[in-house]
Amino acid sequence: MRKLRLPAFDPADVAESNATTYPAVFRADNSRRWNRRLGDHAGIGNFGVNLTRLVPGAQSSARHAHARQDEFIWVVSGEVVLETNEGAQTLRAGMCAGFPAGCGNAHRFVNRSGEDATLLVVGDRTPFDEIDYPDIDNHAKAGADGRYVFTRKDGSPHD
C-alpha cells in the first residue's frame, strides 16, 4: 500500500508519548496514559485532537474541570469508567461524553478492565483557561500562549 500524504495520515504513524506537564508529584499517576497528538500532527492549532490509550489501571488525568475550554471524548475501543461529580459510570466503545467550558463537572477516565482502552479526546485551546483539580492540591492557569502554569490551590508553587 502507498504511504499516505498529509492531510491524510494513519494515526499509527504518529508517535505515542506519556509525557505530561503536571508537577512532578502528580506525574506517576499519568505515566500509563499514552497520547498520539493527531491534531498537532495535522497542523491544527485551534483545538487539540488526541488518541489516548489507557493501559489497564491507568487514568486519563486527575479529575479536573476547565473554566474556558470544552472537551469531548469518544470511546474508540475497550471499556473505561468515567468518574464525575455525580459519581462513576462505565462507558464502552462507541459511547461519548462532553464537558462544556465552565460546567464545573470534574472528570477523568479510568481503565479498570484487563485490556487497553482507546479514547478520542477533542478540546479547544481557548487562552486564559483555568483548571480545577478537586481531588488533589493542584490548580492550573494558562496564558495567552495556552501554556499552563501549575500551582497549589493556595497559589504557592509546587516543590
Main features:
159 residues, mainly beta, Jelly Rolls, 6-stranded antiparallel beta sheet, 4-stranded antiparallel beta sheet, 13 strands, globular
What does this structure look like?
The protein has 159 residues and is mainly beta. It has a single domain (23-151), classed as Sandwich (Jelly Rolls), CATH 2.60.120. The chain is 5% helix and 40% strand. It has helices at residues 24-27, 38-41; strands spanning 16-17, 33-37, 47-54, 65-66, 71-77, 79-84, 87-92, 96-99, 108-110, 117-124, 130-133, 138-142, 148-151. The strands form three sheets. It has a six-stranded antiparallel beta sheet with strand order 1-2-3-10-5-8. Strands 4-11-12-13 form a four-stranded antiparallel beta sheet, with no helix packed on it. The longest helix has 4 residues, at 24-27. It is globular and about 55 Å long. The chain starts with 15 loop residues before the first strand and ends in an 8-residue tail after the last strand.
